[in-house]
Amino acid sequence: MKPKYLSIPYIVWMGIFVVAPIIFVVFYAFTTSEGVPTLQNFAAMGRFTSVFVRSFWLALISTVLCILIGYPVAYILSREGLRLQRLMIMLIVLPMWMNFLLRTYAWMSILENTGLLNRFLSFIGLPTVNIINTPTAVVIGMVYNFLPFMILPIYSVIVKIDRSLFEAAQDLGANTVSVFRNVVFPMSLPGVLSGIMMVFVPAVSTFVITQLLGGGMVMMLGDLIEMQFLGTAYNPQLGSAIALVMMLIVIAFMYVVNRFGQGEEKAVGA
What we know:
Blueprint: H1 8-29, H2 40-43, H3 49-78, H4 82-93, H5 100-111, H6 116-123, H7 135-146, H8 148-158, H9 163-171, H10 176-204, H11 208-213, H12 221-230, H13 236-269
């Protein structure tokens, strides 16, 4: 069998489960329920501007927090021994083996008003906090669920950096901070950019986390789209228009991130 024929199953799979759904989304977005071409679906999106802003804002906050937490973890992990690295990677990946819903339900039991967190605060004499059903709870849930997608790409890049580069920089008089700023971080940027895309894209479209930890009080684009397709406000045309606009914004974001990464790589190479 010629090698080119081996790609046929993959092409068929992509055509059925990726290309065809996108075609249906585009068709519904530009038509009425009777199939008449229209732009009214996009005009009706104006009343959901706050949902768009909230979705991208919370996704951005979650992505930044994942970077602030994930990068130090990945960097420290890459400098440990091989046995400890394997153990820590297993511990980071282990929660992902559990069902996404179970992990989110666990955070509900921690953050609810009578949950473990408030019980602990009461036990040590501190005032309780109201976190559940707030944007803070949604951000906590997104950071927890998507943090491994930030740590692993950064770690996989840093661990492959040649150690002799660090020694050469130190021999030339660079201190630890200079080595990190001029060698480690620029060379680890591809991992950071991969992590940003792997966290931001699912965060901006999530709906399970918002429904469980937000209690329906923090609506995001995922909830809005689900409402149009499965909720009482059944309107697949409007839902398709929202999904299409969200997809275009995410693609534009990914393009900007990739362009930024290419510019940084050229600067480092120079």
